[in-house]
Automatic annotation (TrEMBL):
Signal peptide: 1-24
Name of protein: Protein kinase domain-containing protein
UniProt key word Glycosyltransferase: no
TM segment ranges: 346-372
UniProt domain Protein kinase: residue ranges: 418-700
Keyword presence, Zinc-finger: no
Localisation: Membrane
Source organism: Arachis hypogaea
Reaction(s) the record says it catalyses: L-threonyl-[protein] + ATP = O-phospho-L-threonyl-[protein] + ADP + H(+); L-seryl-[protein] + ATP = O-phospho-L-seryl-[protein] + ADP + H(+)
InterPro entries: EGF (IPR000742), EGF-like_Ca-bd_dom (IPR001881), EGF-type_Asp/Asn_hydroxyl_site (IPR000152), EGF_Ca-bd_CS (IPR018097), Kinase-like_dom_sf (IPR011009), NOTCH1_EGF-like (IPR049883), Prot_kinase_dom (IPR000719), Protein_kinase_ATP_BS (IPR017441)
């Protein structure tokens, strides 16, 4: 029971452990779609937009641009443009395979010279098409032959080619060997377009072999042509496949976006064409389909198409553009194949021996209880909604208050019925679950403890105020649910854990240099200042601590739990009161006044600054006596001129000593014993901002400010006495909190053990 009891006692820190891992998959199987009312296939060839055949009944063309205008010959099932046959169109690669005529020059004793030269055609002369240099080769076949590949575009003209002569030497001509005799091949330079092939002979086959009276040259897709001796007499192909890269438009992505002519649709990205002409579109990772089609790309359902790495389909939860793996109720783990899910090692082994009868009774009781609950549920929901101030909220009008009211069922579904595995934190006044809403948004859902009915109006007003706050450094409140006995608050999900974690976790600490610390301190101070002064009613946080400062993926600070702690839980005991300010951060004045004000937040923020500077926990029970209270320890350090020794290893360097001292001065001011003497949050924020600006412009200042200066700022003699006084009174309190501290110690030990 003791263990369970402890769980409900304040956990001084919010443990953020991401148990569900988001995995992105890059394996996209694109489906190809034509415009509505347009031909999707010609024979076996699919015709994805921007390519198209003809018009819709409306008279709009089925293709995007003239270059993609194709014709389908139904009787021969061939998709053509002029004399070019299109045999495959690949949207995701931006490529198309086409059959192109082979150039041929023959000598005939009777009929004389005959020649077929492959000329540019309407389709491939368009600048939208470039020969893929990577996927094709240029080949000439013959024994007295030269072949050219000419590219003519924008008035510039260039060619490549190869020649082959046999001089009657048949020994060197081998099947499958296109190395210069009888057959030669060259790579194709990049960005070749509007190409034509040209073939000729040096001596009109005079010195050539009797069996060779033709020369051929052509471009062909890699591995789609194998030379054979027989081809010298007669090449059995009229056309061969060539791979073209295509692009749409005639401007870059940026230009086309500026002009509003970009045709990349939903969930796609735009890539500039390597050919320098136009761009192409590609579905974002996790999406598939046709990025040119008005419907855009669609989400891949990884879970139902076995494209996930979760333990099983059951554990897989599809999201927009990705998926997450969840473990079944009562199990923990990341749900991914290598790691999987394991039974939570929660119950001691003694319980395993428990008799089946006991379990049966338990199950029976539960069933009875559930039936009873169900009957009462609907009535209860209404009652709770009213009790929790739902009517006040409705009066305000959902729209004007920006507060979204969630139903209990929705949130139950989002959290997999409050699955223990989805718990990402436990605070003094509730538990925080990670949840996935129906629209795939990931949110944090806070289940509060029981609220005093007398405070309902205040609660609702504060919910309304909080949901109107839109500050970069405050975790956004998205809405609430009032149908449950305890109100549920829905917040945006912040992914990167807590500041506490970053300061005190050895693995993460390295990433956490002084610059980042100063930035986060400044952001936090800005947020607190904003809420103290800028909001329509001043909001006091009451529980400022590093564990309530969350970091998002860019390590931007987001202050959480703002103002929510105003709602004093019903079971208000000495313990619950403690919750209001976490031990170590709590304003000492509160001991006398039992009031938490804006200045209490300033004090707590001072502790956070001290924490950032020293890297020490504000409530350490392991260290020697004097270190148990970080604020006390920090002040004494400053007083005894040992600040630099007290700094966390690694944050001090050549350039930042001055800044550190400045911040220490601010912390000292914040930690003054009387609230009145502390600066306001606005002043703190401005000073920190100033230090950051100075650090950006290098320190122009000359001599070091020394520590005597800080000591001046320490409480003067009279307040020193008060300090002593406060000291003894807190000593008195210590005995009272003794047992709590022990509990905390156990709980605090949890994260390092995990
Ligand atoms: C015809 O045009 C109307 C509106 O202009 C559009 O809603 C409809 O989808 C079009 N039909 C086809 C087959 O393109
Ligand atoms: C598309 O091609 C067909 C056949 O070559 C031609 O008749 C038609 O005019 C072309 N359409 C446009 C808009 O160029
Ligand atoms: C369609 O293909 C058939 C068979 O190859 C051919 O005879 C006919 O001329 C083609 N029609 C057109 C319009 O090209
Ligand atoms: C397009 O290319 C990709 C990658 O090479 C391939 O997976 C896909 O099957 C191709 N699609 C078509 C229609 O050829
Ligand atoms: C065949 O072509 C060659 C050069 O291309 C030319 O010299 C010769 O006169 C031509 N012969 C005939 C019969 O046209
Ligand atoms: C393609 O090349 C031919 C000559 O080979 C030229 O007449 C034509 O203008 C070129 N087309 C483009 C679009 O550059
Ligand atoms: C065409 O050539 C001119 C000058 O040679 C150049 O300024 C222009 O950028 C070129 N256009 C394209 C699309 O390459
Ligand atoms: C391109 O260059 C070749 C070789 O110099 C020449 O024969 C051909 O006429 C040129 N083509 C054009 C369109 O200028
Ligand atoms: C053609 O496309 C392929 C595959 O997307 C790419 O690797 C290649 O660089 C492209 N070549 C040109 C000349 O754009
Ligand atoms: C090549 O010459 C042989 C006889 O020497 C003749 O039978 C054959 O038709 C010729 N081939 C071509 C394509 O002219
Ligand atoms: C090209 O090569 C592929 C595979 O090597 C083969 O499946 C295809 O039939 C070939 N196409 C032609 C036109 O030879
Ligand atoms: C680029 O495309 C637009 C619209 O398709 C067209 O009006 C313009 O003439 C084109 N510009 C060039 C240089 O091809």
């Amino acid at each position: 029971m003791g263990v369970k009891g402890m769980l409900f006692i304040i956990v001084a820190l919010v443990l953020v452990e991401v148990e569900v891992e988001v995995v992105a998959i890059d394996d996209i199987d694109s489906t190809q779609i034509a415009l509505d009312g347009c031909r999707r296939k010609c024979g076996d060839v699919q015709i994805p937009y921007p390519f198209g055949v003809g018009k819709t009944v409306n008279g709009t063309t089925c293709f995007l641009e003239k270059s993609f205008n194709l014709t389908c010959n139904s009787s021969s099932s061939s998709l053509t443009s002029g004399n070019v046959h299109v045999i495959n169109i690949n949207i995701s690669q931006g490529q198309a395979d086409m059959l192109i005529f082979v150039s041929k020059y023959c000598y005939d004793n009777i009929y004389g010279n005959t020649s077929v030269i492959s000329l540019p055609h309407r389709l491939t002369s368009s600048p939208s098409f470039t020969i893929s240099s990577k996927d094709n080769k240029f080949i000439s076949v013959g024994c007295d032959t030269y072949g050219y590949l000419n590219s003519f575009y924008n008035n510039s003209n260039y060619s490549t080619g190869c020649l082959t002569r046999c001089y009657g030497n048949t020994m060197e001509i081998k099947d499958g060997d296109c190395s210069g005799i009888g057959c030669c091949e060259v790579d194709i330079p990049p960005r070749m377009r509007n190409v034509s092939t040209q073939v000729g002979t040096f001596q009109n086959f005079q010195s050539s072999l009797a069996f060779n009276n033709c020369s051929y040259s052509f471009v062909v897709k890699n591995d789609n042509y194998t030379f054979s001796k027989a081809h010298l007499e007669n090449l059995p192909y009229e056309m061969l496949p060539v791979v073209f890269n295509w692009s749409v438009g005639n401007k870059t992505c940026k230009e086309s976006f500026n002009r509003g002519t970009n045709t990349c649709k939903g969930n796609s990205i735009c890539l500039d064409a390597k050919s320098g002409h136009g761009y192409r579109c590609q579905c974002k990772q996790g999406f598939e389909g046709n990025p040119y089609h008005p419907h855009g790309c669609i989400d891949i359902d990884e879970c139902n198409t076995r494209q996930h790495s979760c333990v099983s389909d059951h554990n897989c939860h599809n999201t927009n553009g990705s998926y997450i793996c969840l473990c079944p109720k009562g199990q923990s783990g990341n749900g991914i194949k290598e790691d999987g899910c394991h039974k939570k090692n929660f119950l001691p082994h003694i319980f395993i021996g428990t008799s089946a009868g006991f379990i049966a009774i338990l199950v029976g009781t539960c069933l009875l209880y559930l039936t009873y609950q169900k009957r009462k549920l609907i009535k209860l929901k209404e009652k709770f909604f009213e009790q929790n101030g739902g009517l006040i909220l409705l009066q305000q009008g959902e729209e004007s208050s920006h507060t979204k009211i969630f139903t209990a069922d929705k949130l139950k579904k989002a959290t997999n019925n409050y699955d223990e595995n989805l718990i990402i934190g436990r605070g003094g006044y509730g538990t925080i679950f990670k949840g996935v809403l129906e629209n795939k948004t990931i949110v944090a859902i806070k289940k509060s403890k029981i609220v005093d009915p007398d405070q309902v109006v205040q609660f609702i007003n504060e919910v309304i105020v909080l949901s109107q706050i839109n500050h970069r450094n405050v975790v956004k409140l998205l809405g609430c649910c009032l149908e449950t006995e305890v109100p549920l608050l829905v917040y945006e999900f912040v992914s990167n854990g807590t500041l506490f974690d970053f300061i005190h976790n050895e693995n993460k600490r390295n990433y956490f240099n002084w610059e980042n610390r100063l930035r986060i301190a400044t952001e936090t101070a800005g947020a607190l200042s904003y809420l103290h002064s800028a909001a329509s009613i001043p909001i006091v946080h009451r529980d400022v601590k590093s564990a309530n400062i969350l970091l998002d993926e860019d390590y931007t600070a987001k202050v959480s739990d703002f103002g929510a702690s105003r709602f004093v839980p019903l079971d208000q005991t000495a313990l619950a009161t403690m919750v209001q300010g976490t031990f170590g951060y709590l304003d000492p004045e509160y001991m006398q006044t039992s009031q938490l004000t804006e200045k209490s937040d300033v004090y707590s923020f001072g502790v956070v600054l001290a924490e950032l500077l020293t890297g020490k926990k504000p409530f350490s029970f392991e260290k020697s006596e004097e270190k148990t209270n970080l604020a006390k320890y920090f002040l004494s350090c400053v007083k005894e001129d040992c600040l630099l020794e007290a700094l966390q290893v690694g944050i001090l360097n050549e350039g930042n000593k001055q800044e550190i001292v400045e911040v220490a001065i601010i912390a000292t001011k914040c930690l003054r014993l009387t609230g009145e003497e502390r600066p306001s949050m606005k002043e703190v924020a401005m000073e920190l901002e100033g230090i950051r600006l100075m650090s950006k412009h290098q320190w122009v200042n000359n001599g070091d400010k020394n520590f005597e200066e800080i000591q001046h700022l320490l409480p003067i003699s009279s307040s020193s006495e008060r300090y002593e006084h406060g000291d003894s009174s807190s000593g008195h309190q210590t005995t009272q909190y003794d047992s709590i501290m022990k509990d905390q110690e156990v709980l605090i030990a949890l994260p390092s053990g995990r």
